[in-house]
Amino acid sequence: PTSDGAAAVILCSEQFLKKSPHLSKQAVEIIGAELGTDEPSVFAERSNLKMIGFDMIRKLSNRLYQTTNLTPNDIQVIELHDCFAPNELISYEALGKGGEIVDKGDNTYGGKWVINPSGGLISKGHPIGATGMNIHVKI
């Protein structure tokens, strides 16, 4: 069920972190993040794939690769926003990999990427207000 949730993150500069070495093991560096929302065309086209974010996943991941100068080969661990059971698999398809990721075992330990090692949003009860930060800091 949808529930209330909240998250808090303390942001600091690298200078502050250097002066506070006792915090270094808890520090997380976020080198890129993208945020998007559905466009009106999603609803006009009556496409189930578009309705659950297929085009948005592709657009945002490409934008993230450009802003960070990373490629999928530079990534080892992925936390996907899997708000519904099929969303993880649909995300694979949107990224151009589809069933290939699963068939090769590239979505788990020993594969190319470890995807949703936390168990994903559903395993946490999908606490709406906390999911975004949870994805960033739980790894």
UniProtKB/TrEMBL annotation:
The record's CDD domains line, in alphabetical order, gives:
SCP-x_thiolase
Keywords for this entry?
Answer: Lipid transport, Lipid-binding, Transport
* Entry's Gene Ontology molecular function annotations: acyltransferase activity, transferring groups other than amino-acyl groups; lipid binding
Q: Which domain of life is it from?
A: Eukaryota
Q: Which organism is it from?
A: Onchocerca ochengi
User: Biological process GO terms, please?
Assistant: lipid transport
Query: Where's the Thiolase C-terminal domain?
Result: 54-133
- According to the UniProt entry, what is the EC number of this protein? 2.3.1.176
Q: Does the keyword Plastid apply?
A: no
Record's keyword annotation contains Transport? yes
Q: Know the name of this protein?
A: propanoyl-CoA C-acyltransferase
Q: What is the lineage of its organism?
A: Eukaryota, Metazoa, Ecdysozoa, Nematoda, Chromadorea
**Gene3D superfamilies, alphabetized:** 3.40.47.10
One Pfam family cited in the UniProt record for this chain: Thiolase_C_1
The protein's matches in PROSITE patterns, at most eight in alphabetical order, are given as: THIOLASE_2
Which top EC class is named for this enzyme in its record? transferase
